[in-house]
Amino acid sequence: MRRPEPKACSVASILKLGTVKPSRTIIFKPGGERNWAAMKSLRMGAALLTICFSIQAKAQIASMPAGAPPSSGQSGMAGQSPYLGGVPSGQLLPGVMPLSLKDAIDRGLKYNLGLLLSGEGTREARGARLRALSELLPHLTWQTSETREQLNLAAFGFSGFPGIPSIVGPFNVFDTRAFLSQPVIDFKALRGARSETENVKAAQFSYRNSRDLVVLVCADLYFGAIAGASRVDAAGAELKSAQAIYDKAVDLKKAGVIPGIDVLRAQVELQGQQQRLMFFQNAFEKQKLNLARAIGLPIGQQFMLADPIPYAPAQTVTLEEALEQARNSRADYQSAEALVRAAESNKKAAQGERLPSLRFNADYGDIGLTPGASHGTFTVAANLRVPIFQGGLVRGKVLEADALLQQRKAELEDLQSRIDYEVRTAYMDLKSTGDQVQVAMSAADLAKKQLSQAQDRFAAGVANSLEVVQAQEALATANENYISSLYGFNVAKASLVRAMGKVEETAKQFLGGRE
Known about the structure:
There is one protein chain. This protein is α+β, with helices and mostly antiparallel strands. It folds into 2 domains: 32-136 and 187-307 and 314-353 and 390-510, Outer membrane efflux proteins (OEP); 139-185 and 357-385, Outer membrane efflux proteins (OEP) (Single Sheet). Helices cover 61% and strands 13% of the residues. It contains 10 helices and 6 strands; from the N terminus they run αβααββααβααββααα. It has helices spanning 32-62, 101-111, 113-133, 187-254, 260-295, 319-329, 331-352, 393-460, 465-500, 503-510, and strands at 96-99, 139-152, 167-185, 302-305, 357-368, 374-385. The protein has a 4-stranded antiparallel sheet, with no helix packed on it. It starts with 31 loop residues before the first helix and ends in a 5-residue tail after the last helix.
């Protein structure tokens, strides 16, 4: 019997949710050494998957346009994407809490670490804008002082005058005064404020993009946990089948119908299935922990997956419609556009340092020996500043600002091309994985029939246990292919949603799960 050809696995769908490829299936064959080798290989694959998950998350963050809030893509955990972490929040509920896909997404949008950091980055951008706007607004301060002084007039060149002592004082000076300063013409401050305004818009769009990423991370982790639960169920069913075959082999051996090698072969298969079940149970619990961390569940909270996410055909969206929506809805593209406008204003601000500036200054207050013996005074002045020679300072700032502007434009053009690529590849992946699910469903049904017939032939004594073991392996392969293809199909749907934009508005309906 020809075993299905192994397939390669890609983890690009984790955060970037790009190309989705069929998963690799590891077959647990009879034989202790080969079983343990397969278990070890699968553990290494799981570890590699975790590492790739973190790398993909950091790559997605790094792909955001430069100039986004610095804190939005950084975490105190070295080598760990903040989008895979969360802030544990809420009360620890007794018993086992049901968790639907909608619940997971809603909690992720509240407590995911990456989103919280991105929100603080937006606040940081707003603070920078307020600081820039302050350069255009009036500055009013009030100051009161009372001093006691003694002066040496000789130190100021007043000495040798008859009747005028060189030492004056000590005497009191009381002064209370309000100061007003208002820029009238300042092109540098004006254009700098415009640049910071665009940076705030870019940060807001970046925050929206972070929300989209959180939705996809939560959905992907939920889908992964569902696939893990399916593997546990499939391994449990295969273990029951192996147990039944072993018991039947023992009975036939006692009846003298089959030789001892058939019993031994059935026992090896039974133990192999026991190993698979234990491994998948452990992997499933780890997947649940990863999901709990990303959505900020209280530490130690027990929960169950309430949405089985069965196969459901994707909503019909044409490629042209997907491309049009992506051009109008992608928050990362809008953020990149805002950063280009910010860089343009920043360059104009640097050029503005060559231009004259005019500032109005005034003060009014009382001054005298004591508060009761004081008199009002004031000063009104207009200061005109005309740069003449600054040693190449302005030229250097303009050169730096222009270099930043060209970087932002290049990033925008690259992002536009990447969005088109992501939409097209996601659309192709959705169709391909949908077809794979259909084939895998048919193969699983055929494998069940094959196993049933092999069991009947073995019970009738017309076949040995090798045929049954091969049928069991074929069923295990078919089940794994179906689980992997269904997971890939769900991830492909998430990939298309991400590529189209407006993830938060459409994900819960497009990806499935209960409302």
